[in-house]
# Entry
Amino acid sequence: MDHLTPEKAYEILQGDANTLLVDCRTEVEFYYVGHPVGSINIEWNTAPDFDVNPHFSEEVMRMAGRKDRPIIIICRSGKRSVDAGNELEKHGFTHVSNVLDGFEGELDADHHRGTIGGWRQKGLPWRQV
# Structure
């Protein structure tokens, strides 16, 4: 699995319309915290208990259409997306990348996200519903 900065991930997405951006956070995070423009939400962990989604790979396959399609995975801070990407590779996906620092980045000294890294902090296109 490749590991990309948010800026590099955005550059790849702009250069290749075939690349699929999967946001693997919960649906609540995706809609209420915000998400990258053009991303699709397929939860890695599901509410209410945060259990791993047993159908994650199948759901990605349904959206990707084939296992060799380039897929970039993003989560909150770049950790869940590594687990999700490993699961995709285990199921035969061949071109999987992870976004370092995710959408919100790591915690800062005050335990806040979104101030020291991540897609949103870098000023890349995002939306909130």
Remarks:
- The CA atoms of residues 16 and 70 lie 9 Å apart.
